[in-house]
Amino acid sequence: MKKVEELRISLYSDGADLASILEMYAKPWIRGFTTNPTLMRKAGVSDYEAFGRSLLVAVPDRPISLEVFADDEREMELQALTIATWGANVNVKIPVTNRAGVFLGPLIRRLAEAGVALNVTAILTLDQVERVVEALTPGAWAIVSVFAGRIADTGVDPVPIMAEAKRILRRRPRVQLLWASPRELLNVFQAEEAGCDIITVVPEILRKMDLVGKDLVAYSRETVEMFHRDARTAAYQIDTSQVLAAKGAAGRNRPGSAARSAEDDFCGLGEIAHEVVSTGIGNVKGGPSA
């Protein structure tokens, strides 16, 4: 298993919480940042432009993707050209379609020809990848964001799709493939294997990078310790008196019960458990109900 420093794929942090962004900015292996209006709203951002500008000031030396949010193509174009002036390290995110499902290829081409660094987002199909490649001018710098996590949410393996998307993008050598919406840390390694250039990951998953290569036996024991610690902290109790009473009664009725060893006594719990389950004591009904 590779260490984070050995990964060829670039790790971007995805989010809109400024404290988390600055936490990730302190890590040299975070190569860039992405956000979107949904994440910004969840983070309590009320002024889109003020937040975007302040983010580009706070992180001046790594790429940051900021998204247009208009639905009208003309207004999208004006927003994109405006966002592009906020900083030299900004990529302007343009959705692959509008809300009506109309492909925004002409807008993508005009912005690329104008020299705007793009991040074409919300892509889920290879046909969309093909159409974006055709819309981008040959020398354009751009990111193509395929939402592999959402593809996986539908029960489809995204890895072959991402590998094919990378093959398609070879026609545009300055265009990078981004694995978007990962669901677990394993996706980082899957994305690298598929040939992706970038994966954008929320901080909650990025914080698990220290687990890469961890000994699984030790991790198993830590998990058991966690369950035990949390149960004790919560002061959970289980009333075992009925089973103990049944055990005592059964023991008194067995010949030579006084001479039973501790080991025999412990092993005898299995027999008592069978009797308890068979007869039904308290909430024990003899097994799960239908």
Compact description:
By secondary structure, the chain is α/β, with parallel strands linked by helices. It is built from 13 helices and eight strands. Helix 5 runs parallel beside helix 6, helix 6 packs parallel to helix 8 and helix 8 packs parallel to helix 9.
Helix and strand arrangement:
Elements: E1 10-14, H1 18-25, E2 30-34, H2 37-42, H3 48-58, E3 64-67, H4 73-83, E4 90-95, H5 105-113, E5 118-123, H6 126-135, E6 142-146, H7 148-153, H8 158-169, E7 175-179, H9 186-194, E8 198-201, H10 203-206, H11 216-233, H12 241-252, H13 262-279
Parallel strand pairs: 1-2, 1-8, 2-3, 3-4, 4-5, 5-6, 6-7, 7-8
Helix pairs in contact: 5-6, 6-8, 8-9, 12-13
* Sheet with most strands: strand arrangement: 1-2-3-4-5-6-7-8
* CATH structural class of the largest domain: Alpha Beta
CATH architecture field of the largest domain: Alpha-Beta Barrel
Helix fraction, binned, reads 40-55%
Number of strands: 8
Order of helices and strands: EHEHHEHEHEHEHHEHEHHHH
In the CATH hierarchy, the third-tier topology of the largest domain is known as: TIM Barrel
**Uncertain parts:** none
Structural class call reads alpha/beta
CATH superfamily annotation of the largest domain: Aldolase class I
Major pleated sheet: 8 strands, parallel, barrel
The domain tally reads: 2
Report how far apart the termini are. Answer: 44 Å
Q: Give the averaged pLDDT, no decimals.
A: 90
Task: Work out the helix count.
Answer: 13
Q: Note the overall shape.
A: elongated
Radius of gyration, in angstroms, nearest whole number: 29 Å
- Percent of sequence in beta strands: 5-15%
